[in-house]
Structure to design on (483 residues):
């Protein structure tokens, strides 16, 4: 008989974030009986996530440096409002070891892994060295930063072209450049270093073998304070633009029915997490070649944007478990075998961006309506008059569907995209619609080169469909009138 774990009592949790993830965390806090304390800034006095919080706290300022990235200001809020724990969500201070240490010094729980795990896994060179020591396969290349272009060329000759120049710190697709030959290395080395320095205040670079036609496969793990580490299977995140994910699905269609490969990659992720004494939710990312050999890429020491698809196929609330782990509660899993998966889930990131250029398109929402099929989940921060500015990530929602098999999930996503109406804001919904009907994607045959090779953005019909627009407006008006 499985017994639900008992909580160590009600806590006051500060959510140091905004948007859909802040709302998601607030809901989890309420479920556990904790008090969700949200923050609002001068840039977003009516922020969506505040509707789900029990208390609101003002962080003065509009720029992120004044608010969500202001460690001093957040620590003052923590002290003034008697906060027991801080959940950082993703982005902002979620992987900031200095912030974690400051909270620890103040006697406040950081709802994330321990500071040493954040520090070690936050540096690509250090994490790669740890992975090698733990027996986890890594992409051939340097474990430490290469200081000169001459050094980079020497390594490239040893491991063979093509290679990837890659920032030691950071992520999100910045500070990365493929080099097919020596001339490319000479041309790109200083430029990539400058980009890394500007983005992450660290211009150090690694040199790695570039895996051609790669698949981006990641494994969700969760650990408690008692040394238990569990995996929740894998996700495929290979549909990307500029090294940034836009569609994720679980399980991976590339791994498919190869249960041995699935077990190998998931157990490898657990091995790495144990090597760094991990004790929270996290994601181990791998790159997998067409030969099905996989290599450690990096570890994200936070909750991922795409965590909902894992929740959908396992039935386990990862945010709730993350909070429980942070406060030392028992997660209640008897063993790894108890965690099972069922069905197939797909997530489309809904972003305020031009669907053809895939560049951010700031604007204001003037209308919002949904008509989704069964099996749809929409984690979002959308409301009428929401203004999407260049100050924040352009993602405004995550559309998630789940079906008994992949074909059903794809079919449901087509219907869900047709039922999502956001007026006044240019979004990438048209791009998602094209991809969900594109043969290679529908067959599950795609790599991280999908966008650049298949070019679904060129298949978007740019003609203005008056009849479709009028039908949508009529449907919205009918609902508002209760018809």
């Amino acid at each position: 008989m499985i017994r639900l774990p008992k909580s160590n009592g009600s806590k006051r949790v500060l959510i140091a974030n905004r948007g859909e993830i802040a709302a998601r965390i607030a809901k989890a806090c309420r479920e556990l009986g904790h008090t969700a304390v949200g923050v609002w800034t001068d840039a977003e006095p009516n922020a969506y996530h505040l509707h789900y919080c029990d208390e609101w706290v003002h962080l003065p300022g509009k720029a992120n440096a004044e608010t969500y990235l202001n460690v001093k200001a957040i620590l003052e809020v923590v002290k003034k409002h008697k906060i027991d724990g801080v959940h950082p969500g993703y982005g902002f201070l979620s992987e900031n070891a200095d912030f974690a240490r400051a909270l620890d010094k103040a006697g406040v729980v950081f709802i994330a892994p321990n500071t040493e795990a954040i520090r070690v896994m936050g540096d690509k060179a250090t994490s790669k060295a740890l992975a090698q020591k733990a027996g986890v396969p890594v992409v051939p290349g340097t474990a430490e930063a290469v200081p000169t272009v001459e050094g980079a060329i020497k390594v490239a000759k040893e491991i063979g072209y093509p290679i990837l120049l890659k920032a030691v710190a950071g992520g999100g697709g910045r500070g990365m450049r493929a080099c097919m030959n020596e001339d490319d290395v000479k041309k790109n080395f200083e430029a990539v270093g400058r980009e890394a320095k500007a983005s992450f205040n660290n211009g150090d670079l690694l040199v790695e073998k570039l895996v051609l036609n790669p698949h981006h496969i990641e494994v969700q793990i969760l650990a408690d304070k008692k040394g238990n580490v569990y995996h929740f299977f894998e996700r495929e995140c290979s549909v990307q633009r500029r090294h940034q994910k836009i569609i994720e699905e679980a399980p991976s269609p590339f791994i498919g029915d190869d249960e041995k490969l699935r077990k190998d990659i998931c157990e490898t992720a657990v091995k790495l997490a144990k090597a760094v004494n991990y004790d929270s939710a996290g994601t181990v990312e791998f790159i997998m070649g067409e030969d099905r050999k996989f290599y450690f890429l990096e570890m994200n020491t936070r909750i991922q944007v795409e965590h909902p698809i894992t929740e959908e196929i396992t039935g386990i609330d990862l945010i709730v478990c993350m909070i429980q782990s942070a406060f030392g509660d028992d997660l209640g899993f008897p063993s790894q075998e108890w965690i099972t998966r069922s069905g197939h889930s797909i997530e489309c990131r809904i972003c305020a961006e031009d669907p053809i250029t895939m560049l951010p398109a700031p604007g204001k929402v003037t209308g919002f309506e949904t008509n989704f099929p069964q099996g749809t989940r929409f984690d979002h921060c959308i409301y009428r008059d929401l203004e999407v500015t260049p100050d924040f990530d352009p993602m405004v929602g995550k559309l998630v569907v789940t079906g008994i098999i992949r074909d059903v999930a794809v079919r449901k996503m087509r219907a869900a995209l047709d039922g999502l109406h956001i007026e006044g804001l240019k979004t990438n919904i048209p791009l998602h619609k094209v991809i969900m009907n594109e043969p290679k994607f529908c067959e599950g045959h795609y790599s991280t080169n999908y966008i650049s090779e298949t070019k679904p953005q060129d298949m978007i019909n740019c003609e203005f469909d008056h009849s479709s627009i009028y039908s949508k407006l009529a449907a919205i008006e009918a609902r508002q009138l209760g018809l």
